[in-house]
Design goal:
Elements lengths: L2 H11 L12 E4 L8 E5 L4 H9 L4 E4 L16 H11 L3 E4 L2 H5 L4 H8 L3 E8 L8 E13 H11 L6 E3 L6 E11 L4 H6 L4 E5 L3 H9 L3 E4 L8 H15 L5 E4 L11
Parallel strand pairs: 2-3, 2-11, 3-4, 8-9, 9-10
Antiparallel strand pairs: 1-4, 5-6, 6-8, 7-10
Length: 266
Amino acid sequence: MKVRTIVDQFEKLAPKQLAESWDPIGLQIGSLNANVNKMMITLDVRPEVVDEAIKRHVDFIFAHHPVMFHPAKNLDLSNPQNQMYANIIKHHITVYAAHTNLDSANHGMNDWLAQQVGLNHVSGLVPNHFDPDHYSMGRVGELKKSISVMDFAKKCKKIFNINGLRLISHHPDQVIKKVAILGGSGSEFYPQVLKKHADVYITGDVTYHTAHDMIASGLSVIDPGHHIECICIPKLAELFQKWNQEFNWNIEIVKTEINTEPFTFI
């Protein structure tokens, strides 16, 4: 089975054109013509993930976050990032990333997150630049039952299986029902959340000054971090396994066992 065959099938779900202009998605390292026997799904491609792939004899890594977000300025192998690139190439591993195209895809990242928090009557949040009529980044929907901001924040801790999150709100006792969610770093889109009249916005990596602006606008925000996008690991594995059986790819599909969350709550 060729990498190209797998990628072509995936891009029917999440066309590359949906990706934001700054986003270096697609083939990262290797060749689309490479053979695939064992494929591993991961959120991030970090040195420990590559070591895992080597030990497990993986020849194709499918990631959400691009491994080459920033171009290499040199190939000095004392740099851990460069050494990781060298290890990938040395062991003939192909790496592909689907990032903001998966975020905007229907039945993709943000639909998975909306389902995870229990949203109903879901619609798009930020229309996609390529096809605003059919694709959007982020989702808006309603909870089955109304709940206070504080209780919903506590519930999100359990839903996302995290030890801590940041609540940005001057009204933690407010009873809410309409929720917007955008995986990753979505704080810049809070004006669109206000236009959708959502009571709470779930997104990661909110900065100090933006948090002040959100509070001033009367919006409550739950920041559970960026790593909640790890939901893509089981969801993508399930999707690829379905195609594996449907199209007789005869490849082995595994999920990374490495937790790439960089933050520890103490």
